[in-house]
Design brief:
By secondary structure, the protein is an all-alpha fold. Helices cover about 75% and strands about 0% of the residues. α7 packs across α8 and α18 runs antiparallel to α20. Keywords: Cell membrane, Membrane, Sugar transport, Transmembrane, Transmembrane helix, Transport.
Length: about 450
């Protein structure tokens, strides 16, 4: 009875609410806008890998092997050419706020059917007005990186909402018929441009006068408690569990949760990168790479180990799913497992599918927090196999070992539930085979 009430709650209350959240236009714009920055972060991450080889010269003895000699030579080369190596980083991740506000402005403008090019220009202008004040003709770059990410989100949304209102009120210059469309569009955006400039620059001057802080600095101060709450064992457990509850009801949990937590995780790993470049201690554990490689090992639900269990299953269905899912799972894609098992609305697999992932996340959080494994400051593509991605993101070989241990632990936790589900499917398959055999014999007798 209690189980039925719980499933009723998931289907009738939880699922509709989270479905509406997943489709909320502003959250979708933030999610899609941040996704659009991925190519730039990968380029910047490649520069970081080149710049910081995984070796500490002070801990390598004179009688080192070939690998250590290679790493030392790499370290010397990287130190001598640091500025040149880091140029891609400076042109990508160090300007992340610019790319983010462009992506968010474009995505939101598209949902309102506004002119995307003009909207992006207005969003970028507004962001630069509040984030990069010029001194003696030189723009300040301090808040154009990850420190300006939350500002990019706020300004990207507010600027497009203002443009939408101005468009609805037809507050614009209308050119006569016959004027080329490009010219007409330029004049149409002129009045909104002045209004946005007055609003955002005026707000920036007022906040600077009242607090002595730029808007990005003020926003960072306001968001500090939320950032701290997310970067905690509770934050890891909450988001990992919420993701799996959504998956269990058939909603794409990673995409929905990502719309809420992605800005925090991106900000965290990029701030780690900036601190690493500056030679300062990294601060954040719960980052985008942490989620990709230590939490969702093989895909949502940490199902890589489950795939290996399926490969040796006595159930024909599960064995087939395991064979089909192995290659995608190695690259953190596990829709074949989720829908082929199926794990969605499967009462036998509910406990491990929902709770294995958050348990692994909390364990990994403390191991990284205690300094046993390095913090992530590089973001390889999320499809990188988890042990390799963990090593690349931290430049710490122990991270790969940790992922393998966590995957094995996931297998241990999945095993009893897998066996119970396997038994049910084997009995069903045997019954179907017996029924098919009896039908065949009856046909022959007839």
């Amino acid at each position: 009875m209690a189980k039925n009430k719980f499933y009723d709650f998931l289907n009738n209350k939880f699922m509709p609410v989270m479905g509406r959240i997943a489709n909320q236009r502003h959250l979708k714009a933030v999610r899609d806008g941040l996704i659009s920055t991925i190519p730039f972060t990968i380029v910047g991450s490649a520069a970081l890998i080149l710049r910081f080889p995984p070796v500490d010269p002070s801990k390598v003895g004179p009688d080192s092997n070939f690998l250590m000699k290679f790493l030392l030579a790499w370290n010397t080369w990287a130190s001598n050419h640091g500025d040149a190596i880091m140029m891609p980083f400076q042109m990508t991740m160090a300007l992340l706020g610019i790319f983010a506000v462009i992506g968010i402005s474009y995505s939101l403008a598209k949902t309102y059917k506004l002119n995307e090019l003009s909207s992006v220009g207005m969003g970028l202008m507004s962001y630069l007005l509040v984030s990069a004040p010029a001194t003696n003709g030189t723009l300040s770059m301090t808040y154009l990186d990850a420190k300006g990410l939350f500002t990019a989100i706020v300004i990207g949304i507010l600027s497009i909402e203002m443009l939408r209102i101005l468009e609805e009120k037809e507050i614009k210059i209308k050119m006569p018929d016959g004027v080329p469309p490009a010219v007409a569009s330029s004049f149409a955006i002129l009045i909104p441009a002045f209004i946005l400039m007055a609003v955002f620059y005026g707000a920036s001057l007022i906040i600077q006068g009242a607090t002595g802080k730029l808007i990005p600095e003020a926003i960072m101060a306001m968001m500090a408690p939320a950032v701290k709450a997310v970067d905690s064992p509770f934050g890891v457990f909450f988001f990992a569990t919420l993701c799996q509850l959504l998956w269990f009801t058939g909603i794409h949990g990673a995409a929905t949760v990502g719309a809420i937590q992605q800005a925090f995780l991106d900000q965290n790993w990029m701030r780690n990168a900036e601190l690493r470049v500056a030679g300062e201690p990294m601060q954040y554990v719960y980052t985008t790479p942490f989620w990709s490689y230590f939490v969702i090992i093989g895909g949502s639900g940490a199902t890589l180990a489950l795939v290996f269990l399926y490969l040796r299953s006595r159930s024909k269905q599960l064995k087939s799913v395991g064979k089909l899912s192995l290659l995608p799972a190695l690259f953190n894609i596990n829709e074949p497992v989720i829908f082929g098992s199926p794990l969605v609305l499967n009462p036998i697999m509910f406990i491990p599918f929902v709770f294995v992932q958050p348990i692994l996340g909390v364990i990994a959080y403390f191991i990284v927090k205690w300094g046993w494994v390095g913090k992530a400051f590089i973001n390889p593509p999320w499809t990188t196999p988890a042990p390799i991605g963990a090593v690349l993101s931290t430049l710490d070989w122990k991270a790969g070992v940790l992922v393998i241990v966590l995957a094995a632990l996931a297998g241990v936790m999945y095993y009893p539930f897998f066996k119970a589900y396997e038994k049910q499917l084997v009995e069903k398959e045997m019954g179907e085979e017996q029924e098919s055999l009896e039908n065949a014999e009856g046909s022959v007798s007839a």
